[in-house]
Specification:
The chain is α+β, with helices and mostly antiparallel strands. It has 14 helices and 27 strands. It has 3 domains: 10-157, no CATH class; 210-447, HIV Type 1 Reverse Transcriptase, Chain A, domain 1; 477-557. 27% of the residues lie in helices and 26% in strands. Helix 12 (488-497) packs antiparallel against helix 13. The chain starts with 9 loop residues before the first strand and ends in a 5-residue tail after the last strand. It comes from Gnathostoma spinigerum.
Length: 591
């Protein structure tokens, strides 16, 4: 646009894909007008849209009038003209093609064609060039012709709301998920929110999966029918959920717009004194065509707060309150028109065949965990609710919310009580319950109802880091190093297991993280044992760091009513570079 000195007529956001490619790009495009000079007659004005990038360089031939005369007399089977590579500046589509191309094509012996147009003769097609003696496609002359799309194709690619393919462009799909969420979220008279699934396309390919689910159910029943406790927990979970209107029974003959069955299975932790059961729903289960419910849904954007930001704020006040939303996913309703996509099977009696009157068909009235869109819908609903409330406490929750975990900062017991009361009211108004409050503040824990408190232990997890709420300390540690004869895979698994979101362990891990680079350079496979030299090198590194707790740090990192300074240091070597930021607290001229 700058090169041709064009003035934009208007601007709009477009989504476009290259021909034959499912990846879409979204960008701001300017509408412009271009005058194309004709061989005979006035210039023709065409409308165009600007693009960030059209295509790579194309092979072309620049021809003058004499070249064209000589070319049409050419008797050789090869084109004897030099070619050049040029980057196209303008692409003309099929909507203007016939306004310029009037004549018929004249095929040359080389295989190329000469077409007479309003802007001069065009050499195009496929043929042989003497210079390279290879089969070459040429796009040449004053106008470049490429990638013909019909008007309908262009409209479909450029209008986001009518996309009917499965593009891979993340930003576009996230925008589409947010758009569908905003258009379908509802709130009933009791205050509960309900949503629709965000679909990839209007015409879904959701599998029926009844047979698959029936087979999985029979396998599950074989596992649990001889364990009365496990059966009671499994069956009791569904009965309780039915009573709370989380699930509901449905007639198999009842026809929905889209019907799909989801298999489920138990996740059991037998080491527990009392068997802990979690029922896992597999919305990613595929039919023989490779389709699943999850394949047809948009995952949506990640609307989680910054984990690092939350953990830094976790250390920034004298007291913190940690809590979570009870059964958070199951507190968001699923609108009626999408419920039949979440059917599943159960039985009245585990000792009878899973058919006839013994077979129960349930469907979810809330969004189940295990569906790819559920985390997005939960986060978006909570964000929508807290933003609409607009209070200072709601804004604090919004910043410190991570999935169903919440963290709040307080400077005093009274402030902690106020935040607890306001948070309970905020969530209750949306038919959600916040519970399992934990704090180092003993007075706060005494003053709130016991049913809202978590049992305090010496080691608790806050977004993956260990916290001792009794001493109010962060516990820093590393796992035991892997075996004496490790493979490249085992070393990388060990390094990945060292969870350190706040960077406490960065200095001691430099050697460990640099070491695998030498394994790649020496072309070690994933499961190859290290040779003796590499074993010694690894053992020297690993022996420095035995597994277990390394140090305890005070959770509260500042002094009350102090000023702070930031001191930043940087350094680099041939193996690593580092930035270290120290925050210094000062009060009454003392550190």
């Amino acid at each position: 646009m700058k090169k041709l000195k064009l003035e934009p007529q208007s601007s709009q956001k477009l989504t476009i894909s290259g021909f034959g490619n499912t990846k879409l790009i979204t960008y701001n495009s300017k509408q412009v007008e271009i005058n194309v000079h004709l061989m005979n007659g006035p210039a023709k004005r065409i409308e165009a849209k600007t693009m960030v990038h059209i295509t790579q360089k194309l092979q072309m031939i620049e021809l003058n009038t004499q070249d064209m005369i000589n070319l049409q007399r050419e008797e050789d089977n090869e084109l004897r003209l030099p070619t050049k590579w040029r980057t196209p500046s303008v692409v003309m589509g099929i909507d203007y093609y016939h306004e310029f191309v009037k004549g018929t094509a004249n095929r040359l012996k080389s295989g190329f064609e000469v077409i007479d147009t309003e802007v001069g003769a065009i050499l195009c097609g496929k043929g042989r060039i003497a210079e390279t003696l290879v089969l070459t496609t040429i796009l040449t002359a004053n106008t470049i012709l490429t990638e013909y799309l019909t008007g309908q194709d262009v409209d479909r690619y450029w209008r986001l709301e009518q996309i009917d393919i499965e593009p891979a462009d993340r930003e576009t799909m996230e925008s589409l998920a947010i758009k569908q969420f905003s258009e379908t979220i509802r709130r009933d008279e009791d205050g509960r929110y309900s949503v629709n699934w965000p679909w990839k396309t209007a015409e879904s390919r959701v599998p029926y999966n009844f047979g698959l689910c029936l087979g999985r159910l029979k396998s599950t029943l074989k596992r649990i029918k001889d364990d009365p406790t496990l059966w009671e927990q499994y069956d009791g979970t569904f009965k309780q959920q039915e009573g709370l209107h989380i699930i509901e029974t449905v007639d198999r003959k009842q026809n929905g717009t889209v019907i799909s069955y989801i298999p489920h299975q138990p996740a059991i932790t037998p080491q527990k004194e009392t068997t802990k059961l979690r029922i896992v729903f597999a919305a990613s289960a595929k039919d023989r065509n490779g389709d699943s419910l999850n394949n047809n849904l948009l995952q949506g954007p990640t609307l989680l707060g910054s984990m690092c930001g939350i953990l830094l704020r976790f250390r920034s006040s004298p007291y913190v309150l940690i809590a979570d939303v009870e059964k958070a996913f199951l507190q968001i309703g699923l609108n009626e028109n999408d419920r039949d996509t979440t059917r599943f099977l159960w039985v009245n009696d585990a000792n009878l065949p899973a058919d006839g009157n013994n077979l129960i068909i349930y469907r979810f009235c809330r969004i189940p965990f295990g569906v790819i869109s559920s985390p997005f819908l939960l986060a978006a609903t909570l964000e929508n609710h807290l933003e609409s409330e607009g209070s200072e406490t709601a804004r604090k929750l919004l910043k410190n919310l991570y999935v169903d975990n919440m963290m709040l900062n307080a400077n005093s017991t009274d402030e902690a009580i106020r935040l607890y009361t306001e948070t309970k009211a905020l969530l209750n108004s949306a038919k959600m319950s916040i519970r399992q409050f934990t704090s180092y503040n003993y007075e706060f824990m005494k003053r709130i109802p016991t049913e809202d408190t978590e049992t305090i232990t010496e080691r608790m997890k806050v977004l993956g880091i260990s916290w001792d709420p009794i001493k109010d300390e962060i516990v820093v540690g590393i796992p035991n190093t892997c075996c004496d004869l490790p493979t490249k895979k085992e070393i990388l698994q060990f390094i990945a297991a060292c969870y350190d979101p706040l960077g406490f362990l960065i200095p001691i891990f430099v050697e460990m993280k640099v070491f695998p680079q030498s394994l790649w350079k020496n072309k070690y496979g994933w499961d190859d044992k290290l040779n003796s030299a590499k074993q010694r090198e690894w053992q020297q590194i690993a022996e420095k760091w035995t597994g277990g707790e390394i140090t305890h740090l005070p959770r509260f990192a500042f002094i009350v009513n102090c000023s702070t300074q930031s001191h930043i240091f940087t350094d680099a070597s041939s193996k690593a570079y580092v930035v270290a930021v120290y925050v210094r607290s000062l009060k009454n001229n003392f550190n």
